[in-house]
Design a protein that fits this description.
The chain is an alpha+beta fold. The protein is built from 15 helices and 16 strands. Helix 4 links the parallel strand 5 and strand 6.
Length: 468
C-alpha cells in the first residue's frame, strides 16, 4: 500500500494558491575548492546523496473522487536534471543580483506533477564564489525524522563522506483502481477517516485553514493571547505572487555578549534585535509609534536543549509574543522581551509540537518548518510576523570540498503576511533571511540593514551599562 499523506500535510497542498506557494527554501553561499566546482560536480553530488532522502524521488498522486488523502508514489520518469538547475549572474555578480534571483525563484510554485523540490547552482558571483538556492514543499516535510536534501549534500570535512552505491528502481505507479481499493480498505479499517477525508478533501482553502486553526487553538493554553487580535500593522497586507528577498549578517558572539551581561537567552536577544529593527522601520515609513506600540510575533523556539551548543532541542513550541517596538531604550526592550518569553514558558502558553502531532501525526523536522506551518494554521489576525530562529553548527560545512560561507533561510508568507523573518546561526555568524511581498515591502532592504543596526545598539548599550 502506498504511503498516504496525513491530514495536515495534504492541507498544505489545498492551501497553496497563486499568492501563497507552500514551500520553504534557503540560500547558501560557497567558496569553491582549489580544484574547482561546476554543475557536473553538483549534479554528481546530489545523485550520490539522494538515496538518503527517498521522498525526493516521489511525487503526489491524488485519489479519484478524493475518497482519501493523496499518496506518495515513485516517479518512474524521475529526471534529476529537471530538479537540479544551473543559473549564472553576469560576472562579477553582486549580492544584490543574487537576492533578486532568490526572490524570483522562490516566487514560483513547484510543479505538482513532479517531486516537490528544486535546487539551483548559481555561478558568477564576485570573488569566485557560487551559491545554491533550494526550495521544498511543506508536504515533503512530514515528520521529525524528515531530512532536507540541502542537508545531506553537506559534510563536516572537505573530503566527502562515502555513501553506499544506490541501485534505485522505481516501483510501478499504482493505477486508479488500485488506489481506490487501497482507500476503501483503509476506510473500512479506520472508519473515522471518512469524516477527515471529506472535511479536508472537499473544503476550500479557507475552510481548511479555519479547521486547522480551530484544532490548534483548541489545544492551546494561551487563551488570553489568542482571544485578542494582533495590532494593526503595515506588516499585514494583501499580498501578490511576487517576492523580494533581503538579508542581514550578524555575529553570534554579539548576542552571547548581551545575554551574558543582561541575562535571558540568545533567542531573547534576537527578538529584542528584531523589535528594535521593526521600530526603526516603522519610523522610517512615518508610521505612528507610541510607547505602547507593539507588534505580535509568532516565535517557534526549542524548549529542550536550549543552549549555545548549536544543537536544537528535541521539542519545539511556538509562542505569540508582543514585541515592544514602542520602547526607545534597547535594554528595556530586551528586559520586556525576556520577561514575556519567561512568562510564556512558565505558563505553558504555547503551541506544542506534541499537541500538533496528537492532532494529525505532524511533527516538524526544523523550527523553520514549524514556524511556516504554524503561521499558515492560524488566522492572520493572531500575529503580525513570524520569526524563526534555528541554531546551526558552529563549525564549517562543505559540499564536495567547497566551504559554505553563509546560509540564509527563506520562510514562505501566509495570506496577509507582508514579510517573514528567518535566521540561522552557523560557524560564528547569525544569518537573517527576509522574504517579503514585492509590492507591500518595497523597502525590505531597509528592515534588513536595521537588524544589523539594532544589534549594534544593543551591544553598545550593554557595554555601557557594564562599565557604569
Amino acid at each position: 500500500m502506498a504511503d498516504r499523506l496525513n491530514p495536515l500535510d495534504v492541507s498544505f497542498l489545498y492551501l497553496e494558491g497563486r499568492t501563497t506557494p507552500m514551500h520553504v527554501g534557503g540560500l547558501a553561499v560557497f567558496e569553491p575548492p582549489s580544484e574547482g566546482f561546476d554543475y557536473d560536480t553538483f549534479v554528481d553530488l546530489i545523485e550520490r546523496r539522494i538515496s538518503l532522502v527517498p521522498r525526493y524521488r516521489q511525487k503526489v498522486r491524488s485519489i479519484p473522487g478524493h475518497l482519501a488523502n493523496p499518496v506518495w508514489v515513485d516517479d518512474g520518469d524521475f529526471d534529476l536534471g529537471y530538479h537540479v538547475r544551473r543559473s549564472a549572474l553576469p560576472r562579477p555578480g553582486s549580492d544584490e543580483q543574487l537576492r533578486e534571483l532568490v526572490a524570483r525563484v522562490q516566487s514560483r510554485a513547484l510543479d505538482r506533477n513532479r517531486p516537490l523540490w528544486e535546487m539551483y547552482l548559481v555561478e558568477g558571483l564576485a570573488g569566485g564564489r557560487f551559491a545554491v538556492i533550494h526550495k521544498t514543499h511543506h508536504a515533503m516535510v512530514d515528520g521529525i525524522s524528515a531530512v532536507d536534501i540541502a542537508q545531506v549534500i553537506l559534510d563536516t570535512t572537505p573530503a566527502p563522506r562515502e555513501i553506499p552505491e544506490d541501485f534505485w528502481m522505481p516501483r510501478p505507479e499504482p493505477g486508479s483502481a488500485t488506489l481506490l481499493m487501497d482507500a476503501v480498505t483503509e476506510l473500512i479499517r479506520r472508519p473515522t477517516a471518512v469524516a477527515d477525508t471529506v472535511r479536508i478533501g472537499l473544503a476550500d482553502a479557507r475552510n481548511v485553514a479555519s479547521q486547522v486553526s480551530a484544532a490548534v487553538t483548541g489545544v492551546l493554553s494561551a487563551a488570553r493571547i489568542v482571544a485578542r487580535s494582533a495590532p494593526d500593522s503595515p506588516l499585514n497586507s494583501v499580498i501578490g505572487s511576487q517576492r523580494r528577498f533581503a538579508v542581514a549578517r550578524t555575529e553570534l558572539e554579539d548576542y552571547r555578549k548581551v545575554r551574558k551581561h543582561r541575562g535571558g537567552t540568545v533567542n531573547d536577544v534576537v527578538l529584542a534585535t528584531v523589535a528594535g529593527a521593526i521600530r526603526g522601520w516603522l519610523l522610517s515609513r512615518g508610521e505612528p509609534v507610541t510607547p505602547s506600540t507593539t507588534v505580535r510575533a509568532m516565535v517557534p523556539v526549542s524548549i529542550q536543549g536550549d543552549s549555545d551548543s548549536g544543537q536544537p532541542g528535541s521539542r519545539v513550541s511556538s509562542y505569540l509574543v508582543d514585541l515592544p517596538v514602542g520602547e526607545a531604550n534597547p535594554m528595556v526592550r530586551l528586559s520586556q522581551v525576556s520577561y514575556a518569553m519567561k512568562a510564556h514558558k512558565e505558563s505553558g502558553q504555547s503551541v506544542g509540537a506534541e499537541a500538533l502531532a496528537a492532532l494529525s501525526g505532524f511533527a516538524p523536522p526544523t523550527l523553520h518548518a514549524l514556524g511556516a506551518r504554524a503561521a499558515n494554521s492560524f488566522t492572520r489576525r493572531l500575529f503580525n510576523v513570524v520569526v524563526t530562529n534555528v541554531p546551526g553548527p558552529q563549525f564549517p560545512l562543505y559540499a564536495s570540498g567547497a566551504r559554505m560561507l553563509e546560509m540564509f533561510p527563506v520562510i514562505p508568507l501566509a495570506a496577509g503576511q507582508a514579510v517573514s523573518i528567518g535566521l540561522t546561526s552557523y560557524d560564528g555568524g547569525v544569518f537573517f533571511g527576509l522574504n517579503a511581498d514585492r509590492d507591500a515591502m518595497h523597502d525590505v532592504e531597509v528592515l534588513g540593514s536595521l537588524i544589523e543596526e539594532s544589534l549594534a545598539e544593543l551591544v553598545a548599550a550593554s557595554t555601557a551599562a557594564r562599565r557604569r
